[in-house]
């Protein structure tokens, strides 16, 4: 048995999904997902221009061999685009094997290990009341974990310049933009205490301390 076709489909609003369909000479098809949000067309082009022709004539049963061939034959180091494409091929070949065996793929991989998975719902709203309404709707649907996100009325992004240094001991804090997550990284500059920095920042005056910078706002402190 040999592969005779490898077709790529870009579907759904805003090009959100990339699907690979591999077809064998016996007419058996396998489907693989190559979606990479924000870079869908890059993966689609990689599959069409570089991968599809390499699959023609190959034995679909040699799944591991095909994976290694695609992974190691790339001259440049592998990144998210390449790996998303290879993953789609891998899924499609396993899909073909499952159909030929008359078994779901999870049975071929050792059988089921659980009866269910915990999922979370995404509750959102333009204001606090609508957010709580969305949370209640998810609770009624049976969700035990809910991710919430909303704007915060009255909170405005700070007008302090990201590069402006605060006077030592000023106690000035900066409010994060609505909806922004607190993300910090060490910068290696002298220690300084800031009300919005994480606990890992050493107190002012310690030789081992480092200043922190907010990756969202660029604020240092």
Report on this structure.
The chain has five helices and seven strands, in the order βββααααβαβββ. The strands form three sheets. The protein has a three-stranded antiparallel beta sheet. A two-stranded parallel ribbon has the order 4-5. The chain folds into three domains: 3-108, 2-Layer Sandwich (Enolase-like, domain 1); 120-150, no CATH class; 167-221, no CATH class. Helix content is 29%, strand content 18%. Residues 162-212 have low confidence and may be disordered. The chain starts with a strand and ends in a 7-residue tail after the last strand.
Helical residue percent band: 25-40%
Number of helices: 5
Uncertain runs are 162-212
Which whole number gives the mean pLDDT?
Answer: 78
Please trace the helix and strand order, writing H or E for each element. EEEHHHHEHEEE
Main sheet specs: 3 strands, antiparallel
CATH topology of the largest domain: Enolase-like, domain 1
- CATH homologous superfamily title of the largest domain: Enolase-like, N-terminal domain
CATH C-level class of the largest domain is Alpha Beta
* Spatial shape: elongated
Strand order of the largest sheet: 1-2-3
CATH architecture annotation of the largest domain = 2-Layer Sandwich
> Any idea what the radius of gyration is?
26 Å
How far apart the termini lie comes to 64 Å
Class based on secondary structure composition and strand pairing: alpha+beta
Number of domains: 3
Oligomer: single chain
| Number of extended strands | 7
**How much β-strand is present in the residues?**
15-25%
